[in-house]
Structures are given as structure tokens and as C-alpha cells.
Amino acid sequence: MRWAFRKQTMYDPDTDTFELELDKPLMLLLGAIGHEGILSRLRTSGRQYKTKLLESSAKNWESIIRLFDDFSIEGVLCKLSPRAISLLCLTEYEEVGSNLFAKISSVPNILFIYEDMMACDLENVYWPFSYERPSNESIKATIKKLIAQNANLMPYKRNAEITIMAETFLEETEQHLIFRIYVPAGRIWSNETDKLLQLFREYLTKVANIQVRLDQFRTDKGIIYEIHSEEMSDSTNIVTEFSEFTQFMDLCTTDTNAAENMLKNKDVNPKEVISILSRYSKEAKRLSVDLKHEREQKVLSIRQRLESELVDTIPGGTDWSAIESLINLGVPRLSGVYGAISVDQESTKCLPPIDNHGRITINVNPQIIETVNGLVGQEICGDQYIGPEAHQILELIKQYGGKNSQVLASSVHELEDSSAPKPGRLNAKQKLKKFLIGVGSKAGDVAINVLQRYIENKLSL
Predict the structure, then answer these.
(1) Shared domain check, 270 and 151
(2) Which residue pairs from 90-98 have beta carbons closer than 8 angstroms and sit at least 24 positions apart in sequence?
(3) Whole-prediction pTM value?
(4) Tens of pLDDT along 144-173?
(5) What is the largest CA-CA distance in the chain?
(6) Of 174, 207, 235, which marks where a domain is finished?
(7) Could you tell me the residue range of the domain that residue 269 belongs to?
């Protein structure tokens, strides 16, 4: 296919047979990533792309860096072969490699790397006899450096996984996807989450002056929310904006003067500050009340169900008082409007509290505690049932997920929903595998291997 000629063009006969337009965004394909399905999708959508080899000289890597100077790079798809990793381990590639992957990390990217390689389980990695294999220490240091540079390494086992994830990446970059979250239907505060995201879309438009589109996709078990924008380059900016938005909403209910100052520091028409503040103060107060009432209803529902199940087991009023305390411990507490969307970052286990002297202050039969835990989980999670393995992964995410906790927790629920689109579930699975590989040394290899097998069995190609 030959692209229409415009003012200036560049042409590289080494890898492509069509002219490149300097004023048109460019998708970079590095390494052996140019499968026919990927190329067909790019051609069908009329997008400009460039394929370059990584199993090449340092001079060729410098030519890839120059593409970032000459073009607006809209994304990078890369396959890191053992040979490419070998080159990254060499001294002569150290500087150019660092510069190249810093450039790659500055735009939307996926760097596919064989799962055992990423886990540094190097005994199971095939190394071509024609290539000199670096030491295990050098390979581990190289992979650690790539992660430190915020390169989006994604593990894979089969080429079919690469094709599906790459095609999904191309679709997301074409539609300028910057935010995606899965919310189980019927989960505590799911209705309030919907309202919060609607208000966030309006806030981005009116306060942050960023044009966005909010889409919803319903499955049998939940809703997928997506925010698209051509004015934001990556998801980092949207996370910052969401954090400021939730802070603004909380101030609207607690300190309107501080909320007003936040608006004045934004690029907001001074004549509109009062009307915007009035609207969001009203919405924030209503949302706060709705969140409070939803939690109270959940606590009441759990208590009533327990009374029906345990009426013959626990006749004493004192015991019921203790159980109600346990219920309150298990149902997530509110911590501002952000609590509506961060349910998975709160504990839902009704463990007996311990006082400052280490004494258990509530004495309840362990079997009853398990019954309470079960009912709390059902009420909090809504229509979606998740098993003990999924709960274990959520617990690990709470401990080690950091800034990616929300995305990872969303991935757990999306993977568990068999009615969700397969490409999204595959992406969710690989994100979780990547996370588990990263926390393996902290959480114990045996436990991590069990959880990895669990998510592997949830979805097969």
C-alpha cells in the first residue's frame, strides 16, 4: 500500500515499501511483532506505521531514536527476543539502549517478553545457539532496569496472545483510550460509582478544559467504563486529574473556600466559578448522603439475613451486639467520595478487633465469624461471585499494588466475568500475571505459582 504524498516524506527501504508522512502520527513496530493480523488492522484503519528490527546494530537503534524526533509517535509495539535482551546486556548498547527505552516509555507502549524470561526463570528459556548467552545476573539487571524506566513489559507464552493484545492496543490507541475500569453489578456503591464517573466527565470538560467521551459496556455481571480523549497522551494524566477531582468533591462538602480556590487555580472563567461551585457542592453533598445510606442499608441487610440463619444458634442479645460490631468492621467504611470506586482496597474480613494490649475484645464462635464473612462478601461484591483464589489476589493487590491497585483490582473482576469480551479478559489476565511475577519474592513462590495456575486456567486460547 502506498500512502498519499504530502509536503515532506521519509522513506526507509530496509523495512517498509511505502512513504512516511512527517505530519502524520506514526505507530512503531519493533522486533518480530509485525504479524499479518496486526499489519492488516493498521492498513485497514489507514494508520501510518514503521517496522524496525531490534536484533541489529547500535547504529540502527539510534535511527529508531531519531524517529521520535522526526515524528509524533502514537505508540510502540515491541517483542523483546532473547537476542534483543542479549544486546541490551552489552556495554556498547548500554547508552543507546537506555535512551531508546526512555523514549519508548514516554508514549503508550507494550513490550512483549516471554513469561519465563520476565520471571527470570532462565533455565526454561530457549536461547539460540548462534547467540552468546549473557550471565543470569546481567539478564536480571537488564529486565530490572527496563521496569525501572516504566516500560510496559507484558508477559506472554504463545504468539496468539501477542496478536490479541497487540490488536487490542491498536484499537485503544486509535480510540484514544485513557481510562478503563470494570465495576461488578450490584456491588456496594456501584450506582454511586456511576454517578461519580459521570460527574468526573463533566468536571474534565468544564473545569480542566479537556474534551472527553465516557462509554459504558454492560456484561452479565458488571459494567466496563471507558474514558477517551484526544487531548491527553496517557493514563498518568487522567489519574492525576481524578485525584484532584475527588479532592475537589470532598472539599465541596467540608471546605467550600478551599474548593473555590482550587477552581481559581484552574483555567476557569472567573464568572463561572460560583455557578460551578454551587453545582458541585450540591452534587457532592447528595453523593455523600447516598454513600452513607447505601452502607447503612448493607449493614442492615446483612444483620437481617444473619438473624434468619442464626436465630436458633444465638439467642442472646449480647452475642448479637458483638456480631453487629463484626459486621461494621467488615463493611467498608467511607473515606471521601473516592471510597465509592476503591472498594477493593478495603478489607471485607470480619476479624475480631484487638485492643492496645493485644487482647481480643469480641468473643464469637469462629464458625459464626465465617458465616458473617460469607454474607458480608456476598453483599459487598454484588452479583459477581469470586472464589478464594481471586480474594487472595485482591489481598496481594492491597498490599503491593501501589498506584496500580485500582487497575489490578478491576482486572480481577473482569477476568472473573466469563461474559466479558475475550480480548479484555486476556489483557486482564496478563496484567495480573505480570503483577504476580513482580511480587513473587515478597509473597512466596509456592503461593504465587498456585495463583498463576488459577488465572491461567480462567482463560485459554
Answers:
(1) no
(2) 92/58, 93/58, 93/61, 96/58, 96/61, 96/62, 96/65, 97/61, 98/145, 98/149
(3) 0.86
(4) 999 999 899 999 999 999 999 999 999 999
(5) 85
(6) 174
(7) 178-287
